[in-house]
């Protein structure tokens, strides 16, 4: 069966080990906010860019598994794309694992076809995974954070608790299709400080203050010319 192979360091059951996983299914879950006011804010900031309101919340977009990448740079056509930090659920061996990624999206295409915009850009994902059941007891303490680099200056771009989004079980149950081994789901994001905008570099992290650990990753955005 086709798919894309990604290598992760998996942290579970008191040990860490490297494993290469064949990812066959990639899903972007949108509009997963638990806080309806915060959800409305994110919808409004996208509306300001011309993005229509979603038909339902949450909503699930399929993208090609080959779009997932652990690379430290991605190439995007034009200067209209931007990243957003999201927690990520990965199904492996009958168990769910937690990671963090960036739903990098072409914002210009998003104004007229959201599904197509999700497919336009690579989807970076950090190289570490935690067993989801090991963080579930203190789930709402987990923090998502991102930084963006503009003209060489790094600024805080997003920050907040995962409690801003629906719990993983609720997001997965709304998908309506099997979510089994080799499946990855990006699970929603936070409003951006200063509004959504393109950057030359994007860095993101998932922090567990209870167990004193974090998953971090970052990537440069290489802009390809638009020839016409």
What does the main sheet amount to?
A: 8 strands, mixed
Please identify the oligomeric state.
single chain
Strand content: over 45%
Number of distinct beta strands: 17
CATH architecture: Alpha-Beta Complex
Total of DSSP H or I helical runs spanning 4+ residues: 5
**Structural class estimated from helices and strands:** mainly beta
Helix/strand layout:
Elements: E1 4-12, E2 15-23, E3 25-30, H1 36-47, E4 59-63, E5 68-69, E6 73-77, E7 81-82, E8 85-92, E9 95-102, E10 105-106, H2 107-110, H3 114-120, E11 123-124, E12 128-131, H4 132-135, E13 143-150, E14 153-161, H5 168-173, E15 183-186, E16 201-208, E17 213-224
Pfam family, one: DUF2848
Protein name: DUF2848 domain-containing protein
Observed structural traits:
Fumarylacetoacetase_C_sf; Fumarylacetoacetate hydrolase, domain 2; eight-stranded mixed beta sheet; DUF2848 domain-containing protein; mainly beta; DUF2848; 228 residues; five-stranded mixed beta sheet
